[in-house]
Design brief:
The complex is a heterodimer of chains A (261) and B (341). With 261 residues, chain A is mostly helical. Chain A contains eleven helices and no strands. The chains are: A mainly alpha (261), B alpha/beta (341).
Chain lengths: 261, 341
Amino acid sequence: MTAQRLNSALSWVIYAFLLAPILVVIIASFNAGAFLTFPPQGLSFRWYWTFLHNAVFMRAFATSIEIATLATVISGVVGTMAALFAAQARPAIANGVRIAMLAPMLLPEVLTAIGLLFYFYALGIGLHHGVALLAGHVLLTLPFIYINVSTALKGFDWSWQLAARSLGAGPWTTFFRITLPLIKSGVISGCLFSFIVSFDAFSTSFLLKDIGTATLPLQLFDYLRLNFTPEAAAVSSFTVFATLVVMVVTERAFGLKIARF
Amino acid sequence: MPIGRRRFLGAAAASLVAGGAQARTANSLIVTTYGGSWETFWRQTVVPRFAKLTGADIRLDVGFGRTFSANLRAAGRGKSDYSILMMNEPFIEPLIPGKYFEPLDLSRLKNYKDLYPAAQSHNGISLVGMISPIGIGYRTDLVKRPPTSWRDLWTNPEFRGRLGLYNVQNSVGKATVMLAGQLYGKGPTDMDGAFAALRRLGPVLQTDFNMSTMMGTGEIIVAPYDFGEIARLRQQGLPVACIAPKEGLLMWDQSFCICAGAPARDLAYRYLDFILDPEIQTLLARRFFISPVNRKVVLPADLRGAVPITGEQIGRLLPTDWAWANRNAIELDTRWSQTFE
């Protein structure tokens, strides 16, 4: 009993340690003063107001949402397909697929980004139309989908599929009515991770952004290089809230019970 | 006719490449600036004015020296989408041997003859469009004996443990090493002399680029500071001041260069001339408190307090050797962290 209590106390300490910095940023964002300081000098929504009326930040926010959504959709489809394939392939092939899918996670992000930068210039596309940026984000997010879907597929009973097929369902029907509902939790949690990772990615966006565009982390970085107002804390806190909203909405809409972990 | 997969991929790739080529046209110029208030000013003032003047399509790109140089190198010489870049000289210097920039055709810049010597091109490749002189900034409420010399950072006991420095990743950090070498060693490139002197500073609070938060909280009370930033902090109500040390000033330069194979070469020169124009220089001084580089600029009376270093005074610069600093970047980095561990 005491061991259990000790355990839960320890968990709380770890949570507090992990969350304290975020809390500091959130409190600092309500600073009424002109400097990014902690503790804040008075409380106000002034910097949220400034941020929400800052067209540059709002555009960057929209760009980040757009890229994170596109990247998540693409990696969601590709990653799920790869996981399904690997789960049914011969061990040697499945291993190869796994290594290939996880490679972007094993390499430092900045190396992947530099590689893509030179690659896209060599192709003659350069950074136009955001192709390189999207490719970078897809690479970055693929492993998260792959890992989550693969985990969901552990212990997946393939005879369900066989049963559906033998009862006359085509491959698409089988996938959408049998397989997908069974691996739903993996796909959704993978997509969530993917969205958040893409939304937060810095090095990839830093090197691969199209001329004239910026994602929110880049905009924030550019802003902080020369301006030091609590607006930066307001932007960060807003991002934290937005992420929480995405998580809560997803949980309510689809359910996030990941029983297989 | 059904479109086969290969055909489709081929067409998609071709359209991408065509789109890429399309962006490099002579009537469309990409201009660059930094984030935050710089971006705001460029979007609201510089870009619309220049677009109106030329009728051209002007696109703004935000980044800084490191991103722009990475892009230039990745694109390859003469293939970049940029025609003109605004960077600091320490970023420009290593790109010169690779011929990423063309020699400046000064005859195309009608404002060039009016530039102060400190802004004129010393390498034939870049010229300085904006100068932010750097002196010593300090908290007027927390410092009893205001500094007058760079040596005060070493000798004034009030500053012990409350001195801020830009670290060696920042060009001002590298300039600080050269300053220490100049003051206490055999010259700006005397690395041993410089680091021996820096060690004597005792504990130092370092920053990559944000000095003002520490100054705001009073963690530091003195630091190398650009006059414009001090003027901004005063506007926000912080009791600070900046002095020009008697030995001379350091500076942050905004240097401009024209990229080799510039897709919009004519527009690039017109843009550079536009930046050097007294009217824009005055606007920049008002917005960023930079010291104008054009001698025809007459600063309005209300700006003279915020922009105290003007005219020939901006020529009182301490010697710096960026080629040396770039060549020895790794050693500077290592020895800096050994000195201030």
